[in-house]
Amino acid sequence: MADSPRRRMPQGTAAAESPPDALVSLPLDVLDNILSRLHIYEVVRTSVLSRAWRRRWEALPSVDLARSHGISASDVDALLLRRSAPLRTFRLVARDSTWFVDALDDWLLYLSRNGVQALDLSFPELYFRLHSSLFSCRELTSLVLNCCRLPPAPSEFAGFPNLKTLRLKDVDVPKHGGKVLAALIAASPLLGDLELMAVKLIGDGPHEEGQSAESDNEYPRTSPDAQAIFMGRESESLLNECSAIMDTSTEDTVDEVGTQTTGNGLSNDVAHPRRWQRLDIESVAQLEEIEVTIKLKEQLHQMNYISWMIQRQGFVAKIKLEAVSTSSIATARIICRHQISEHSVRRFL
Amino acid sequence: MAAATDDAGDSNEMIRVVSSDGEHFEMPEAAANLSLVLRHMIEDDCADAAGIPLAVVAAKPLAKIVDYCTKHAAKSSGLTIEEAEELKRFDAEFIEVDTDMLYDLLVAADFMGVEGLSKLAVQRTADLIKGKTPEQNRETFGIVNDFTPEEEEEICKENEWAFQITKPPSRLC
């Protein structure tokens, strides 16, 4: 109990600090989790509680602005400036389209330089184009974007080596959209959870195929396997080697496709057996990865819903695509190589 | 023994756990599986008759956690709307605890990796802080104000943007 008589300390006793209370002494992640559920003003106002609290908020690993109605861009500036520890998680839900994109660029630059690991950004309108410093966030493990445009990847982009979760919803990927996305996915060797909803891949038409050699140079990749995917684009031999192939080019819409590889290496897809080829478990074992090729037919603007899961031995990938549209042809090749615990499997199932 | 043994869930096997102060508890395996730490111990065959020792969890919070897990394990899959409502009511009552127990639950649920309980306790704590003045928060959580009035004022001034309660709506996001 805080008793009021004791709370006014005589002047000049700056060193007289009370022992930290139980709340401020909670494990950092627990306290972070609690304060992330508050309005950012309330988080900052904890600084006035006591000396132990004064700089506590500045060192929290997360800045979660999803519940911070009424904040302005200058508030975000102020709070980022006050931070004293690396920022692990940044979550922003912008509700006002008058926010300046400039401010956002600065924040993204700040985040990329402070080793942000989880980035979750939502915007009210599609015209918010993210700054290319997004691609400098090398520490990212989770990237969740809602309603914005991806910048072109800079030539030196070498992937997100730790990215495990990628969720894009209402996102435009301009200029070689399919390739940008494919390169991003290919260069993220740990990616195990991919969700694309209403993603527009712009300008990835067949007339650009001739530039593939240049484009390949544009997006260096981390793994030789990923390299193979790009070098062997559209080739039959590559397709045959794929552990699992899904070709939707003959279908205008696909409602829901679920498959599970069984022990004998055959895929079970009762509804559309011809779209699935026999899985070559041996080559899978060599590659230690599951690859899914999605082809979208020209003019196919809506892929209603595809959600499938691939489970093989210990390797599990969860992929969900919804209403992905392209300006022409897009080929997204997805490599998922991630060992997910049995717990996750149960949850996904 | 504080374990509730009705509704054993899928598994009939009982898992024994021991609190830091040496008290023994029992719960169905399905309930223990809600704790990441216990599940890993069970998978590694560390669950024996002597019980799994939980060095940092005292008997009082452990009894609560066993209750929580037992209740939730019994009603984990295929919930009807009524059952979901009932579980919600259970949670709401369950977390009506004093701050000492709340801290214990926060730390223990975090340590044992009981995700649902962690969320519940964290949200409860956030709800206690929400919308309160600093003075109210000090009172709720037993925080002693060791600032001089001048210092307090200075801090408010330093972070003026966050201490202004009302902001012009034109700058809203």
Automatic annotation (TrEMBL), chain A:
<dbReference type="Pfam" id="PF24758">
    <property type="entry name" value="LRR_At5g56370"/>
</dbReference>
<dbReference type="InterPro" id="IPR001810">
    <property type="entry name" value="F-box_dom"/>
</dbReference>
<dbReference type="InterPro" id="IPR036047">
    <property type="entry name" value="F-box-like_dom_sf"/>
</dbReference>
<dbReference type="InterPro" id="IPR055411">
    <property type="entry name" value="LRR_FXL15/At3g58940/PEG3-like"/>
</dbReference>
<dbReference type="InterPro" id="IPR032675">
    <property type="entry name" value="LRR_dom_sf"/>
</dbReference>
<feature type="domain" description="F-box">
    <location>
        <begin position="20"/>
        <end position="54"/>
    </location>
</feature>
<protein>
    <recommendedName>
        <fullName>F-box domain-containing protein</fullName>
    </recommendedName>
</protein>
<dbReference type="Pfam" id="PF00646">
    <property type="entry name" value="F-box"/>
</dbReference>
Automatic annotation (TrEMBL), chain B:
<comment type="function">
    <text>Involved in ubiquitination and subsequent proteasomal degradation of target proteins. Together with CUL1, RBX1 and a F-box protein, it forms a SCF E3 ubiquitin ligase complex. The functional specificity of this complex depends on the type of F-box protein. In the SCF complex, it serves as an adapter that links the F-box protein to CUL1.</text>
</comment>
<dbReference type="InterPro" id="IPR016072">
    <property type="entry name" value="Skp1_comp_dimer"/>
</dbReference>
<feature type="domain" description="SKP1 component POZ">
    <location>
        <begin position="14"/>
        <end position="73"/>
    </location>
</feature>
<dbReference type="InterPro" id="IPR016897">
    <property type="entry name" value="SKP1"/>
</dbReference>
<dbReference type="GO" id="GO:0006511">
    <property type="term" value="P:ubiquitin-dependent protein catabolic process"/>
</dbReference>
<dbReference type="InterPro" id="IPR036296">
    <property type="entry name" value="SKP1-like_dim_sf"/>
</dbReference>
<dbReference type="InterPro" id="IPR011333">
    <property type="entry name" value="SKP1/BTB/POZ_sf"/>
</dbReference>
<dbReference type="GO" id="GO:0016567">
    <property type="term" value="P:protein ubiquitination"/>
</dbReference>
<protein>
    <recommendedName>
        <fullName>SKP1-like protein</fullName>
    </recommendedName>
</protein>
<comment type="similarity">
    <text>Belongs to the SKP1 family.</text>
</comment>
<dbReference type="Pfam" id="PF01466">
    <property type="entry name" value="Skp1"/>
</dbReference>
<dbReference type="GO" id="GO:0009867">
    <property type="term" value="P:jasmonic acid mediated signaling pathway"/>
</dbReference>
<dbReference type="Pfam" id="PF03931">
    <property type="entry name" value="Skp1_POZ"/>
</dbReference>
<keyword id="KW-0833">Ubl conjugation pathway</keyword>
<feature type="domain" description="SKP1 component dimerisation">
    <location>
        <begin position="116"/>
        <end position="162"/>
    </location>
</feature>
<comment type="pathway">
    <text>Protein modification; protein ubiquitination.</text>
</comment>
<dbReference type="InterPro" id="IPR016073">
    <property type="entry name" value="Skp1_comp_POZ"/>
</dbReference>
<dbReference type="InterPro" id="IPR001232">
    <property type="entry name" value="SKP1-like"/>
</dbReference>
<comment type="subunit">
    <text>Part of a SCF (SKP1-cullin-F-box) protein ligase complex.</text>
</comment>
